[in-house]
Amino acid sequence: MMKNLRWQFVIIFLTGLVIGILLLGEQKDVGSLAATPRPAQGGIYTEAVVGNLQRLNPLLDSKNQPDRDIDRLLFNGLVKFDSRGLPKADLAESWGISQDGTTYNFTLRKDLKWHDGQPVTADDVIFTVETMRQGTPTLSSDLQDFWKSVEVKGSGLNLQFRLKEAFSPFLDYVTFGILPKHLLNGLSGDAFVNSPFNLQPVGTGPFQFERLIVDNGNITGLVLRAYKDYHGQKPNLSQIVFLFYPDSIGALTAYKENRAQGISQLTPDVLPQALNYPNLALYSGRKPELTILLLNLKNTEVPFFQEKVVRKAIMQSLNRQWMIDNLLQGQAIIADGPIFPGTWAFYDGIKPVAFEPEIATRNLKEAGWVLAGETDTVRSKKDVFLKFKLSVPDIDRYKNLAGAIQRDLAAVGIQVDLEVMPFESLMSDRLNTRSYQAALVDLSMSKSPDPDPYPFWDQSQSTGGQNYSQWDQRVASEMVEQARITTDIDERMRLYRNFQLIFEDEIPAIPMFYPVYTWGADNTIRGVRMGPLYDSSDRFNNVTDWYLSLNPITVQVTPTP
After folding, report:
1. Which architecture, in CATH terms, is 76-196?
2. 3-state secondary structure of 324
3. CATH of range 289-515; options 3.40.50.300, 3.30.40.10, 3.10.105.10, 3.40.190.10
4. What's the whole-model pTM score?
């Protein structure tokens, strides 16, 4: 973006110089100039959180978003990731990877301290890994088994992880929040889950637990205060207060009544109301999800899914922007591939597929899919009709989208019959058994900054894995398999670029859109920046930059996702 702008900068500089000289001759009323707000120390930020508090423990928070949001401020991992999915130092000041990609060595920062003043050592990391090996109620069995396969040892400030084989997404796995061994050692099972620690946590993050807010025996909020010995940039804010509400309407009401300055989530049902508050800045970021129309490429009941011309015609016939604008209240971004935009692995040379039903109709006709009679509404070829069953979760969002898909495809002569069912049944009875024709679902990469597309698209995952489309493409599989074992990021970028080009050409499934997460904060809260998200707690990535300004500007701010 910058490489051809040098001459513009020269013009801007010269123009600014001339204007500056002219302004020297002008007398201005200094009092009429708005003062530029500067970061200030101190101040309290209060956020209305949608949901309830359960347990503040990074090994117990995977099923409760409010817990994860707060834990982001309390705990740290060895590394963290920026919005592009690139690793950065956190508790580890450095790390190295062996040439064969099986050994990872980490060195912790010096003088790390828990919130209670005790030193952080390699023993705390090893203890946390051992706890994951034992398992917790919210830890997946896959993650538990993964850590059982990794050898970890260390002492003092040094740690070593040894893998059985090279696995380049490994750094994803060391973002887990590290727990204090001196407070939790010896606890397991129910004792670990019900430990008082989970409501009075001790971590290493930029903020530390201060107290719960309790009303009539119910936890209605909590207070965090800035941690003076934090190893990173010290926070500008002195306190963050979280107040819990059952839904976005309650949270927005808290803002309206000046009980909160921020709202953790603005769902589509309250977004129009939120836009009416001129001092409420809205921040949107792409979620780590891909809404996709899966096609079962090996289902003999729908053999036409094997034809690329049919798959492309389906994609060209869907008015995805209309769906975003009218069904999703603008809270999504059109998707054209399986790798998330804004990440280091995304290839921006992919050509968007436009809404072109006329071209889709022409291509289907040329491929032999015709309307045989004057009254026919469904295309056919050799007694095979272009119709399929679309399975969707019994959730309004999906049902509304499925109705739009049905309407758009009917316009080009493709019949879609809807099968609405509980999400659990869709997974167990249709996707896992591969006994579906087409399905509208979200593929989630939540909490996984590494772009690894292997689980959803590799040949080996066609049976028993998550390659629900059963895409059987050897070259594409070789790309994602090789990218999984090389630690050279430039080589991984090349492999993923080639993978995306193959996906673009074959269209094994129909990418629809990337959903968007939106939250709001009063514009007295400055310094907020937000990029693409891997979890909604990522909105706190630069929380140490936030500060309170007493000079609000009445402007509606809606950053581009």
Report:
1. Alpha-Beta Complex (3.90)
2. helix
3. 3.10.105.10
4. 0.86
